[in-house]
Amino acid sequence: MTQRHIPVLIVGAGPVGLSLAGDLATRGIRSLLIEKTDGTILQPKMDMVGVRTMEFCRRWGIAEWVEQSPYPRDYPQDNVWLESFTGVEFGREPMVSKEEEPLPKQSPQKRERCPQDMFDPILTRFVRQFDESTIEYETELQSFTQSAKGVVAELRHKNGTLETITADYLVGTDGAASTVRRALDIPMHGQPVLTYTTNVIFRCKDLPSLHDKGKAYRFIFIGEEGTWLTIVAIDGADRWRLSYVGSQERRTLEEADIHKLILRAMGKPFEYEIESVMPWVRRALVAETFGKGRVFLAGDACHLTSPTGGFGMNTGIADAVDLSWKLAAVLDGWADPALLESYTIERKPVAVRMVTEANRNLKRMLATRTKAPDPIAFDPSPEGAAARKAYGDWYTETMRAEWYSIGIHLGFNYYESPVVCPDGSDNPDDDVSNYVQTGRPGHRAPHAWLKDGQSTLDLFGEGVTLLRLSADAPSTDGFGAAAGERSIPLTIHDLSAQGAEIHDLYGAALVLVRPDGHVGWRGNVVPGDPGGVLDTLRGANPSQAAILPPDLPGEEPHVDLRFEDIESFAGRDEEVRRRG
């Protein structure tokens, strides 16, 4: 029997694996995406689609699908801190619905609320549009070997049959307990346990009618012990996710414990139905490297973070896009295989930055444990009201960085990458809550509206893009000829008639933008060797040294965590108990 051969085998069909398969398909690259489960999502682990992810969705042509998901566009997104639904309220961060939220000036898209059990089906529909991509559920990776020529993998299908396939590359998007990472023996660094937490999905129709706190996205419950529980509106209707935050001490909640938590959160008896229970471990870990040889990792397989901030999935999808264009460029023959060495170099610092900020958000959320409310704040007296306001104002200001984090989503950059041409410019301030667009090499190419209603971002993605932004800019023929000699797909857009604003935004008359939408080079004159610039972008410039980025700095003693250390509790992430 002839073995199947596929250019890219992807293991794990969560949002990161689906995004990788879809992005590869838009570039004409075939992939096989396998998933050991049947794809059912009992516990949606994410619900915020960040602005950068929405920009990817825009390029993929599915932004409207996300915007039109079942999550109600008119549902308020307030964050509320309170004793209980029927107890006192300390304060809130009022936030408008997705329908009312304006576009940020830095993007043609805005963040969206779309829980994983709504978002994954959208991505699945996207992937299944293409003949280049195949999804096989209830198919598990048993083992693999790799050589200089490719990867040989053994798969086990639903009916128990084994199949050996060959692939040019394999990518593990298989989550915290990654089989692929284990086989590669890649250690993780950071903090293996931040908290032992338990999520409970429960149903209750018209929950807001049972209390006076109104509709809100997230409720943070604060007692005399500080923050102990959160509840979020999963679908804006009758499904709610309760998270018992916990601590670094392992605790298993029995059914009676869960009912007590729900009753305490409401403050009075009410009718509800528990749908599922999932114990999990909140961690801060980043893999030592994001791949070896022809095998790579993306998403939770190489970085694990507290969900405080909603960065995890969005960072994983950006991993997928970075890896996708590089795999496609190598497979299509216009890039040197050394281009793939830049994947870890570019994405690992982004993961470290993201995990670090998520940790800060967790500390902000749990700051109440060291600065708990004065007992009088729970009193209905005027003195109690004054204490509540003072405490609520402090917590509102403390938490604000988590709600407004566009700088995290758009501000990462690859300036130090060996496949970017640095220009000696200063690195702008890395501000969590604000983002000033820049055309500095390695940064996301800035958004600006064009006269025809398109965004500049709509010009990027299929190959390398050359922007001519000034009427007196030199001829681009040198770049065109060099790209032709190297079979590099190059599209040239003359935007000189669009006005000086775009030129000033990008900071140069000529700008090369990579397929992932990041600036690769900029300048006011064509260099003497334009081919050398393109060689750098395609990983064929031997003068560019590859420097492995540092590991995650720990605020606790450094931990070298290998799979064997994580195995004892990683499985709890996947343990979901159905409830009647």
Structure described in brief:
By secondary structure, the chain is of the alpha+beta class. It has helices at 15-26, 51-60, 63-67, 116-127, 179-184, 255-266, 312-331, 342-365, 382-403, 406-410, 477-485, 500-506, 530-537, 563-570; strands at residues 4-11, 31-35, 48-49, 79-82, 89-93, 112-113, 133-137, 140-147, 150-156, 162-172, 188-203, 218-223, 226-233, 239-244, 273-287, 291-292, 295-297, 303-304, 464-468, 490-494, 510-513, 519-523, 560-561, 577-578. It is globular and about 80 Å long.
Task: Characterise the protein shown here.
With 580 residues, the protein is α+β, with helices and mostly antiparallel strands. The protein has helices at 15-26, 51-60, 63-67, 116-127, 179-184, 255-266, 312-331, 342-365, 382-403, 406-410, 477-485, 500-506, 530-537, 563-570, and strands at 4-11, 31-35, 48-49, 79-82, 89-93, 112-113, 133-137, 140-147, 150-156, 162-172, 188-203, 218-223, 226-233, 239-244, 273-287, 291-292, 295-297, 303-304, 464-468, 490-494, 510-513, 519-523, 560-561, 577-578. The strands form four sheets. Strands 4, 5, 11, 12, 13, 14, 15, 18, 23 and 24 form a ten-stranded mixed beta sheet that branches. Strand 8 (140-147) and strand 9 (150-156) form a beta hairpin. Helix 1 (15-26) runs parallel beside helix 4, helix 1 packs parallel to helix 7 (312-331) and helix 8 packs antiparallel against helix 9. The longest helix is centred in the middle third of the chain and has 24 residues, at 342-365. The model is unreliable at 555-575 (pLDDT under 50).
